[in-house]
Amino acid sequence: MESTIEIRWSGDPGKIKRAIQSIEPDDPDAFNVDFIHHESLIEAIITVKASSLSTAKATADDILACLGAATVAGDVLED
């Protein structure tokens, strides 16, 4: 049975796009990203599909950790 996890992230378009671009090359088939534009903000919708819930959760955890690291790195470079 396929499992799906959806991660939604809203905020500054530049920060979100840079963070997502930094993780996309790692495993492009593991997840899909769609963007919705809201005036000056953007919402990224990251969809993870896997053959089991545990695999989907592990992938989502990896994505969140990588996005967190990419965001911190981007903040450090901006300062």
SSE run: EHEEH
Tell me the number of strands.
3
Based on helices, strands and strand pairing, what is the structural class? Answer: alpha+beta
Order of strands, main sheet, comes to 1-3-2
| Low-pLDDT residue intervals, each spanning 5 or more residues | none
Whole-number mean pLDDT? 89
* Largest beta-sheet characterization: 3 strands, antiparallel
Task: Give the radius of gyration.
Answer: 13 Å
- Any idea what the shape is? globular
Give the DSSP E fraction (strand runs of 2 or more residues). 25-35%
Jot down its keywords.
single chain; 79 residues; alpha+beta; three-stranded antiparallel sheet; 3 strands; globular
Overview of this protein structure:
This protein has helices at residues 13-23, 53-78; strands at 3-11, 31-38, 41-50. Helix 1 (13-23) crosses helix 2. It is 47% helix and 34% strand. It is built from 2 helices and 3 strands. With 79 residues, it is an alpha+beta fold. Strand 2 (31-38) and strand 3 (41-50) form a beta hairpin. A 3-stranded antiparallel beta sheet has the order 1-3-2.
Write a short abstract of this structure:
The chain is of the alpha+beta class and 79 residues long. The chain has helices at residues 13-23, 53-78, and strands spanning 3-11, 31-38, 41-50. A hairpin with a 2-residue loop joins strand 2 (31-38) and strand 3.
